[in-house]
Amino acid sequence: MSVLSEVLASNAAYAEDFGDKGELALPPARGFAILTCMDARLDPAKYAGLAEGDAHVIRNAGGRASDDAIRSLVISYKLLGTKEWFVIHHSNCGMEFFTDDVIRGLLASSLETAALGDDGFYDVGTGPGAREGDYIDWLTITDQADSVTEDVRRIKAHPLVPAGIGVYGYIYDVTTGRLVEVPAATEAGRAG
Amino acid sequence: MSVLSEVLASNAAYAEDFGDKGELALPPARGFAILTCMDARLDPAKYAGLAEGDAHVIRNAGGRASDDAIRSLVISYKLLGTKEWFVIHHSNCGMEFFTDDVIRGLLASSLETAALGDDGFYDVGTGPGAREGDYIDWLTITDQADSVTEDVRRIKAHPLVPAGIGVYGYIYDVTTGRLVEVPAATEAGRAG
Fold first, then answer.
1. Alpha-carbon distance A63 to nearest alpha carbon in chain B (angstroms)
2. Nearest 5°: phi and psi at A140?
3. Cβ contacts (< 8 Å) between B79 and chain A: which residues?
4. Please, which residues bridge with residue A58 across strands?
5. Domain A28-96+139-192: which topology?
6. Residue A155: which of A26, A3, A34 has the closest Cα?
7. What's its top-level EC category (chains A, B) (predicted)?
8. pLDDT tens digits in sequence order for chain B, 192 residues long
9. Contact between B40 and A56 using a beta-carbon 8 Å cutoff
10. For domain B29-96+140-192, is the CATH number 3.40.390.10?
11. Which residue from B103, B83, B91 is spatially nearest to B63, judged by alpha carbons?
12. pLDDT digits over A61-105, tens only?
């Protein structure tokens, strides 16, 4: 079965058993938001105990506090009333395994998927590539605790974020499923 | 119990019953990605039938093909091998209920949450506000079928996206849990 058929079949089963979820209100019932990575191994609803209707979930490569994540967070509190936010990066994140220079070079040489070799280097591939990757900040990560702390700081310092919002910084351990606190982020994220 | 304590308690229970999920590989096992809205009522793992490890999930306000979503999608295929992408907006989305001018005005007058009155207008609130909202494109939505189609088109036309990637456009109906196809997006999203 194709991916599309599989997704639609799963969706039909979900809708069949939808219960009273059609009556949920638009604003998150539990008043918080989670910013986390797109990584396939992470299921924030499961790892943080969310039912449908509970909380906003924002996800991108790395779980970074990008301009677009800030856009989403501001809408989350300003129009939909969230008051606490989690920034959750994770161990073994793909964003640790390359730099801006690496991905720009790979995209310039080929648009096809670059396999990661046993030697820890990506296949360069053969064209056609494109140089547009040079204009993107890929928001790669060197150290997870640092990236969580920087992102919490960026959010707290943003002129559109009121001081009263508490921001919590955690790292999700993909080998255990546990959330591990980042103390420097906790310090930076305190509600004022 | 506070939100933080609740999340940590739920996480401890999840980790307790983690099974062999610690051995999942980094690249998505089913080779696809979903771009959808941060809305609390949406659980993409549930509505599309994803287990941990299956697929990348990217979420922002509206599920829009923002520059940051494009960054994430390019990493998703270029380094982690996904070949099919879903763009899934939804009915009753908060992004339909305001315009750039409205949210810029609200943020300029106050940073606190603006309640939506019975008259369909947001409370203006009292200061301090900030004008930084003027520099953000809020990516609001007028019509869901149009926004899905535009976003699929933008992704397909992006110079870093190879023609071979198929992009599917759907609207999730929050009253039924069903994914409804957007035919114009299907047309625009075909793999070349």
1. 9
2. -70, 170
3. 94, 97-98, 103, 106, 113-114, 116, 122
4. A35
5. Beta-carbonic Anhydrase; Chain A (3.40.1050)
6. A34
7. lyase
8. 899 999 999 999 999 999 999 999 999 999 999 999 999 999 999 999 999 999 999 999 999 999 999 999 999 999 999 999 999 999 999 999 999 999 999 999 999 999 888 888 888 888 899 999 999 999 999 999 999 999 999 999 999 999 999 999 999 999 999 999 999 999 999 998
9. yes
10. no
11. B91
12. 999 999 999 999 999 999 999 999 999 999 999 999 999 999 999
Does B74 contact A13 at a Cβ distance shorter than 8 Å? no
CB-CB under 8 Å, B113 with A7: no
Tokens of B164: 């071979």
Chain B residues inside the 8 Å CB shell of A78: 103, 106-107, 111, 113-114
Looking at chain A, the domain(s) classified CATH 3.40.1050.10 span 28-96+139-192
Of A79, A82, A47, the C-alpha closest to A155 is A82
Structure tokens belonging to residue A117? 């070799």
Please name the residues in contact with B17: beta carbons below 8 A apart, sequence gap of 6 or more: none
Instruction: Cis check for the bond before B128: say yes or no (omega within 30 of 0).
Output: yes
Say whether B37 sits in a helix, a strand or coil: strand
Q: B174: exposed, middle or buried (C-beta count within 10 Å: 0-12, 13-18, 19+)? A: buried
Helices (H), chain B: 3-16, 44-48, 67-78, 100-109, 144-157, 183-189
With CA atoms as reference, report the closest residue to B66 among B40, B38, B94, B99: B38
- Residue to test with chain B: of A1, A43, A104, most B Cβ within 10 A: A43
